[in-house]
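Why predict the complex rather than its parts? Because the way molecules touch one another can change local conformation, and only a joint prediction can capture that. The input here totals 226 residues.
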Amino acid sequence: DIQMTQSPSSLSASVGDRVTITCRASQSISTYLNWYQQKPGKAPKFLIYAASNLQSGVPSRFSASRSGTDFILTISSLQPEDFATYYCQQSYSTPHTFGQGTKLEI
Amino acid sequence: EVQLVESGGGLVQPGGSLRLSCAASGFTFSSYWMHWVRQAPGKGLVWVSRINSDGSSISYADSVKGRFTVSRDNAKNTLYLQMNSLRAEDTAVYFCARGQQLVPPGLDVWGPGATVTVSS
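Output of the joint prediction:
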């Protein structure tokens, strides 16, 4: 199975900050990488697909990139509604494993 | 409105069975691959299973293989997850999700989740 490792596991930041979250795959997954945002008690929200493509309706302050097996999610200027847990997920092969999550806190 | 709604969750004893349903609306259900994802209390997301659009291709996580069965009824726009031989570690919120009609696909629509508690 492909392992997905996110870092950091938690992150403290302030409104207006620029933050980055990294996800590393245990083997090559091309661009088969998605990002989700989840708030407590809610279903995940789809943010990014194919490593760097913004899902419709997602604010442009969210962006993502890939370098080999490393994937980066960037939020350019944190807004209050961005404080949540973020997950990466590979869809290259089953099981479509998720990273362990990164909790973004104030 | 595109929507997924799970039902069928509840409290079940270890070794028992439960069937979850996921009712789809607002899109052509028969054209999409569908997935189940679960989340234990206070833990992260775990992919459970997926089924292709006509039900001919299915995949499971090792942790549920042989115990869980995913199926779909395209005439009823409904996805199912039959869960047998349930264990305490299966306690979780179970989400159904739609796979994008793209390659590579993400999970672009999610239901609110159904809670399954396995306890004596």
